[in-house]
Amino acid sequence: MPKHSSRSKLIAGALAFSLLAGGTSIAIPAPSAFAAVSNSMFVDTIPAWAQKHVSKLALQGIINGYKTSSGTTEFRPLKSVSQEEAVVMALRFAGLEGEVDPDGIVAYPDSFKVSSYAKPYIIVAFKNGLLDQNDEYANAAANPKAAWGTTPATREWVTKLLVKAIDKKQLADDLSKTASTFADGNQITAKYLGYVNAAVSLDLVKGVSATKFDPKAPVNRASLATLFSRAEKQYKVPYAGQVSGIVTAQTATSITLYSEGKETTYTLDSNTLYYSADSDNAIAAGDIKLYTDVTLIGNSGKALYVETQGTEQHVKTTIAKLDRINTTDRYFYAWVNDEPVKFTYSSAVTVKDSTGKTLQISDLKRDTNLTIVQDTFRTAPQVVSITAEAQTGANTVTGQFYSAGSGLINYLVDGTLQSKFLADNVAVVINGIDSPTVSDLLKDVDNIKLTLNDNQQVTRIEVVNRNVSTIDSATVVNYSGDNKLLTVYDPATSNANALFLTDSTKIDYSGSSITVSQARSYLVANRKVKITYSGKNIISLSFIYKQTGSLVSVNTTDKLLSVKLDSGEKVSIPYVSPLLQIPGVSVPTIGSLQAGDTVTVLLDANQEKAATIQVHKTLQYQVVSANASTKLVTVKAADNSQKDISLVNVPITDENGNALTVGALTSGTIINVPYIGSNIQSVKTITMKYGTVSSVAASSLTVTEPNGTSSTVTFSKGIKVIKGTQTTYSSSAVAAGDIIQVYKDENEQTIVTVAVGDKRTFWKYDAPNATLWTYKNTSEDNSNFAYITSNTKILYNNASIQVSALKDGDTITVYAFNNTALKIVKS
User: Fold this and answer.
1) Predicted TM-score (pTM) above 0.85
2) Secondary element (H or E) of residue 549
3) Is residue 806 a contact partner of residue 762, using CB atoms and an 8 Å limit?
4) How far from the centroid of its chain's Cα atoms is residue 356's Cα?
5) In this predicted structure, what is the pLDDT of residue 402?
6) Same domain? 99 vs 223
7) Domain total of the chain
8) I need a labelling partner for 11 at 20 to 30 A (CA). Which of 63, 247, 506, 636 fits?
9) Which tens digits make up the pLDDT trace of 579-624?
10) Which segments of the protein form a coiled coil according to its record (predicted)?
11) Any idea what DSSP says for residue 467?
């Protein structure tokens, strides 16, 4: 595996380089070179599929063009790239150029010919595993008539270099035996097959056609730029002038981004480029939606390149009724579900009524119905827009619902039929029903309040007389189809209820909607149903084919399950020999069930007994490998057992809820997988962080990672601290300065492992392998080595020293995780 340096330390000058022509010197532009970059930076024609990637890498300072005699700049997209040129680009992309010693003396075998400027780069590539020395020496020896360095880089060779540069060699090894999906896959050299498969699965490379890869074809400058541009999704780099954030405002001449706790406004002009992350085609500025994620490259306050990272808007919507406003301190209270809630807003908040008329927030009247949109990315959410019911005119009328259709609602006022036109996106509010629509209104039952806009169109319909009740486990006593009268027994109250079905009653049978007449044959004595009703009319009825709730107890003598439903009602469900599905238990028995388990009990056809018992449980795995094509993922459990899980039609997100693909589940990724029985509900990736604790609070801690990034970890589901042989469950066991590993377990509990310094005697440092060796403390000692990275801090008397300053026999204390040292202190 390549031992890459941290890329967070790179600056513009260190990242800027050319796709070199043979013998051409390396060009490293100063930061001011950004000013010359524009939509027309290159005068020659660049293929449409490469324009996005060439533009982006040029603006990031990664590639340059060639100056012509006339003073213009050409990119020369179809010019082939040599192997040594590709290596130089890969090293700079991987952040390893700092290891290159241009004045160093480098010797290679006579058969391995490399240009003078490239020699020190090649040795660094060998050292860090981007190139295999024996492999490349053999390649050179097999082709003695051509210099290895100036040999054109082929598509398969560059693909291997690229995959190693982004540290995905393990994925390539995992896919080395997988057949290629390309028709000419048999032409791919065996040692490159896994790398081609890996690059395809990561969406880094595509074929020259839908079915052809053409592995031996040389790579041109446009293709290589495209490859490294796509690789940025897998290997993030902080480029000078580049920022990722959320769009909070946009006009024809400016765009504002929220990033790292602050908002910054950039100017836009006709040269600004707009793209989306999932396409190579340019988009219009108007395609960027507010409150979505974007990446922006800018200079001196001007946006040069804007790339959307998805369409998800980081906002939430709340329906509320206004109580009072404090315009001085910019907050207001509104009633949400009969609770007063405080909302804060800024001077930039937009307020409109339901007709689109712009208002001042001070125009809003008490008891006005509001649709409030808040951001979800600030620590303290701010209101970004408010839509209010119309504030002027005779804006409400009342009556009894009669019918609706063809854009009209008809209602009775003192026995007289009246009608109103419905506005677009009319809101319907019915107590006890989630997300109701006009079709949920009941003729001759519902008294309604209509909110009108200035054009007398209905924008909101509120049912004011309906009180909805629910019977979770009713038992049918009898049903009279002639008058649609259903009599049921309510076990929670031991009462009988006589209720009427109507043409508006929604009926569910095993997940399918059926009519009242179709339900007649099923409404027989002892049939179990769930009913919601208002007055004497049934609003919805569902035949119970499963029960979900918390397991109270298991009576193995009488063979009864006691389950507490979400409504609070307890039900007893008989069982004989049910199918048991308990995640993580290979051979479950009734005795495997635990009180408090969330369970779904599927009933038999007669609704009498438990046919299947499914336990709800989340398991945590480590990804071994993932096949993006089949969506089959091999995972390893805590006991090191492995199995394959299918993620077809399973949503995958990161810890922040951002959608991911199977391709993002790289080897070593930790995932939480919630199950209902044997059915996977979703997958969430878990970030394993390493670093030094900056501060500790009662419910959170701040950790600074080796690359300098600081983040806050919360303990919303508790904390477990492991320090040596001691385990505690309080944040007081963690102190500022502790070196930790932190992640969330399958129950969302925060697990913090504090590194306990291991006192050792230094022996030697193996520079080519970046490995520090110490003498064994005992004959059974297996931990006498540690890997050193560019992030490893080595201290003596609280001052940083180089690893070369350590001498045989020095006493050191090593703080490490997984044999990788984070800090070493010399005594």
Assistant:
1) no
2) strand 546-555
3) yes
4) 34
5) 92
6) yes
7) 8
8) 247
9) 999 999 989 999 999 999 999 999 888 788 899 999 999 999 999 9
10) none
11) -
